[in-house]
Design a protein that fits this description.
Length: about 350
């Protein structure tokens, strides 16, 4: 956000809050949907998702694979396994991969850099995105040197008190510091938030979208919080999909050029959730190409879709789903527009 003074900033915030609170969902989504087509085109970009490990050192209250959940059968893929999965996706046409897993410093220092290198070799010209949580700057630098182009680290909620409660004592400022490290290392920067965490207000939801703009994000991941029965948030109220659609639309209106995925969590909460998110301003889909025997154990929340399907099946399914709403898939890398501008020099 580039408002000049604190006064101007707070008046911009109240303006957005009043616009958001009074707009109907239909109007918000229609405006954001057409802005998205205007700025990003009507094709929907694909990113192949590899859930490489469900081992995590953290204990986020919302997450099904948190360290203290003894019911999780833990797994971690080898670097060679990740490269073989990516190569299969590459053969199916994918040119963008996301490696996501628990926050585990040792794994990130040993296996991940090698996985990134191997994927780079097996999939020439493909973009590699990491989502491995908070790591030291030196580790982010090492992964960048290994060939990672982008990083996704959601701030989860912009409310500092709620953040600390939800993340078992870890503060929002540490996530923001990590995002600063990633940006300074030249990563294309992704963050985002969950919608409907217990204790979240209408103001928080607007502040979440505004923080995405303030951080000048290249990618924004937004998804509904879905309570997991084996976490301290079991039994929390489930927000309606509408709230996620409103958040998507507002974020698109505030960041016209960002890449916004229609998330698996939205598709898990509502069978048409991803289509609805696309129509509300999202422009990316992430087929889960993790082999079923692993992804069945990556249960962040209950009711997760695509657990039995291979990646190719999901790509075919997404093609049909997009056609049903008048859209087509794109297999391009889909870099951030600023990276594609002539004269761009990476850090
Ligand atoms: N460990 C890394 C991190 O936390 O950034 C990456 C993996 S983490 C599982 C990916 C995302 O899953 C988190 O950023 C969070 O927003 C989302 N998530 C976790 N539990 C969830 C839940 N119960 N419902 C919806 N999304 C959830
Ligand atoms: Fe670990 Fe990420 Fe889950 Fe938190 S959200 S417990 S850091 S996997
Ligand atoms: Fe996975 Fe439809 S997207 S089965």
């Amino acid at each position: 956000m580039t408002t000049a003074t604190p006064g101007a900033e707070s008046s911009f915030r109240s303006e957005i809050l009043s616009f958001y609170s009074s707009a109907s969902t239909e109007d918000l989504c229609a405006r954001a949907g057409s802005l998205c087509v205007e700025r990003k085109g009507s094709r929907v970009l694909l990113r192949g998702l590899i859930e490489y490990s469900n081992v995590c050192d953290r204990d986020c209250l919302y997450c099904g694979i948190r360290k203290s959940n003894p019911k999780v059968r833990r797994y971690s893929l080898e670097a060679e396994e990740m490269a073989a999965i990516a190569a299969k996706g590459y053969a199916a046409g994918l040119r963008s991969f996301v490696l996501q897993g628990g926050e585990e410093a040792e794994f990130a220092a040993t296996v991940l850099p090698r996985a990134v290198e191997l994927i780079g070799r097996a999939c020439p010209g493909a973009a590699i995105t990491l989502s491995a949580g908070i790591l030291d700057r030196a580790e982010y630098a090492r992964l960048r040197e290994a060939g990672a182009d982008r990083y996704l680290l959601r701030f989860e909620t912009s409310d500092p008190d709620l953040h600390r409660r939800m993340r078992a004592g870890w503060g929002l400022e540490r996530r923001l510091e990590a995002l600063g490290d990633l940006a300074s290392l030249g990563y294309q920067l992704g963050s985002g938030y969950m919608v409907g965490l217990p204790g979240e207000s209408e103001e928080t939801r607007v502040a979440n979208a505004l923080l995405c703009r303030e951080l000048a994000l290249d990618m924004v991941g937004i998804g509904p919080f879905i309570p997991h029965p084996d976490t301290p948030l079991a039994g929390s109220e489930q927000s309606a999909i509408e709230l996620t659609l409103r958040a998507t639309a507002l974020t698109r209106l505030l960041l016209p050029d960002a890449h916004l995925p229609a998330t698996t969590a939205a598709g898990s909460l509502d069978p048409q959730g991803r289509e609805k998110m696309i129509l509300a301003g999202a422009n990316v889909l992430m087929p889960n190409i993790t082999p079923p025997e692993s992804k069945r154990d990556y249960l962040l929340y209950p009711g997760k879709i695509c657990l039995d399907e291979e990646g190719e099946t999901c790509i075919g399914c997404l093609g049909l789903r997009m056609r049903s709403i008048g859209r087509e898939l794109s297999f391009l890398r889909g870099d951030a527009p600023r990276v594609e501008e002539p004269g761009y020099v990476p850090a």
